């Protein structure tokens, strides 16, 4: 009996994702070691990110939230009624409530997210709160060209929503690719008045940026190190978490925060039967978080085919929310 209980209590076997395996192998096997930031968000990583969003030093979430709330009427006035909102990467679909509350008579909500299970749960509760909004969830990778369902007959236009400065995880080249892709997805099926509402973190005092990614409670460090924990669990790795240090700094030439995990000693790590050697002080580059000036971001958006039409920011110019329209071809 007790044996049965303890067996049942054992952790579920870790899922094996062949793409994760391939990406980790490529990243750790490279001359300059890297790991893709998108893998931070397992269960524990998502919890840690939510904690980050509440840290006193981490201004982006609360600042964007404040802009959305205070500028809601202005944003709604520009976007107008009868739009279908397409959200790129709608993890928990929380910020969307602010937008749906502000918009006059929103017609639809179409979130796209890699994790179909998370998405269905979030959409189900959202649907109860907004019974008149047609909700259609799409499970998939929005960085690739995804076919979207046909536009709603009652929708006048399609409006993309990409909050949180998630675009900062892309290099400017990758961001351009994402914006071009988003423009294509919003253009077909979108009518006159379609566009993209996007949150972008701004270039600022490096000390403020540095603090936001080096919080005194150590949550960002735990978030960064959790990636190694995930590799240990899901890919049968033997990373010693005590032998790697969180290292985050602002790179002013590339306008970005870089996060690294730095090996504190010479060591060999095994992942899925493969061995990787580390020198003392060698790093794994785990994340870029690119910052923009309003002008640099508008230039990027224009290059992708958008027309920058409005921008809202906070009194301290910490964060920006851009409204980009799609000129009719
Ligand atoms: C979710 C990509 C916007 O870059 O600020 C927070 C992730 N990394 N602290 C960011 C993150 C470290 C976050 N984004």
TrEMBL record:
Transmembrane region(s): none
- Enzyme type, top EC level: transferase
What sections of the sequence does the record tag as coiled-coil?
none
For bias kind Basic and acidic residues, which ranges apply?
12-23
Q: Does the keyword Methyltransferase apply?
A: yes
All copies of the Histidine-specific methyltransferase SAM-dependent domain together span: 21-325
Using the UniProt annotation, give all residue ranges assigned to the region (Disordered): 1-23
Q: Name one Pfam family in it.
A: Methyltransf_33
Keyword entries, A-Z: Methyltransferase, Transferase
Q: What is this protein called?
A: L-histidine N(Alpha)-methyltransferase
Top-down, what is the taxonomic lineage of the species of origin?
Answer: Bacteria, Pseudomonadati, Pseudomonadota, Alphaproteobacteria, Rhodospirillales
Question: Gene symbol?
Answer: egtD
């Amino acid at each position: 009996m007790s044996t049965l209980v303890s067996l049942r209590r054992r952790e579920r076997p870790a899922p094996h994702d062949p793409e994760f395996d391939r990406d980790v192998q490529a990243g750790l096997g490279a001359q300059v070691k890297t790991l893709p930031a998108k893998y931070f968000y397992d269960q524990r990583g998502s919890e840690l990110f939510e904690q980050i969003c509440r840290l006193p030093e981490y201004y982006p979430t609360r600042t964007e939230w404040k802009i959305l709330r205070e500028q809601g009427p202005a944003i709604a006035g520009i976007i107008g009624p009868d739009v279908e909102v397409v959200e790129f990467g709608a993890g928990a679909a929380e910020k969307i409530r602010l937008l749906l509350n502000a918009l006059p008579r929103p017609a639809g909500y179409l979130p796209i997210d890699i994790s179909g299970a998370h998405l269905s749960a979030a959409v189900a509760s959202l649907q109860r709160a907004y019974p008149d909004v047609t909700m259609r969830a799409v499970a998939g990778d929005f960085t690739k060209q995804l076919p979207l369902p046909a536009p709603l007959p009652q929708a006048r236009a399609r409006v993309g929503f990409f909050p949180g400065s998630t675009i900062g995880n892309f290099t400017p080249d990758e961001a351009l690719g994402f914006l071009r892709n988003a423009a294509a997805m919003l253009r077909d099926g979108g009518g006159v008045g379609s566009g993209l509402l996007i949150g972008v973190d701004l270039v600022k005092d490096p000390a403020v940026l540095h603090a936001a990614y080096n919080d005194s409670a150590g949550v960002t460090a735990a978030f960064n190190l959790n990636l190694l924990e995930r590799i240990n669990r899901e890919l049968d790795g033997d990373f010693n978490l005590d032998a790697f240090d969180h290292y985050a700094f602002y790179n002013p030439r590339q306008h970005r925060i870089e996060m690294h995990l730095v090996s504190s000693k010479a060591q060999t790590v095994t992942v899925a039967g493969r061995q990787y050697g580390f020198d003392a002080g060698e790093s794994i580059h785990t994340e870029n978080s690119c910052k923009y000036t309003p002008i640099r971001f508008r230039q990027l958006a224009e290059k992708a085919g958008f027309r920058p039409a409005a921008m809202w920011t906070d009194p301290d110019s910490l964060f920006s929310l851009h409204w980009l329209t799609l000129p009719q071809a």
